[in-house]
Amino acid sequence: MGKIPVKIKSVVYGLSPFQQKVMPGLWNDFTHKITHKVTENWLNTILLVGPVVGVYTYVKSYQENEKLEHRY
């Protein structure tokens, strides 16, 4: 016995090239959202940013010292 093909309904989503507001809520009051998150979690922010900045400054100073050592 042969199988009878069944039509499957499908939904096709499209975005108009004239539509300018794709995700309008994402950028609304973005700076306020970020400052609110930072002020709520300032300790976690310091604990995250502190070591990153420390390692970065250490590496930069180490590279500068190495460069000055091998100057002559």
From TrEMBL:
Domain of life: Eukaryota
Gene3D superfamilies noted in UniProt: Cytochrome b-c1 complex subunit 8
Similarity annotation: Belongs to the UQCRQ/QCR8 family.
Primary localization: mitochondrion
Membrane topology: Single-pass membrane protein
Residues spanning the membrane: 42-59
Pfam families: Cyt_b-c1_8
The keyword Transport belongs to this UniProt entry's keyword annotation: yes
Signal peptide per UniProt: none
Natural source organism: Deinandra increscens subsp. villosa
Name of this protein: Cytochrome b-c1 complex subunit 8
GO cellular component: mitochondrial inner membrane; respiratory chain complex III
UniProt-annotated location(s): Mitochondrion inner membrane
Keywords associated with the record: Electron transport, Membrane, Mitochondrion, Mitochondrion inner membrane, Respiratory chain, Transmembrane, Transmembrane helix, Transport
Coiled-coil intervals, chain numbering: none
UniProt-listed GO biological process terms: mitochondrial electron transport, ubiquinol to cytochrome c
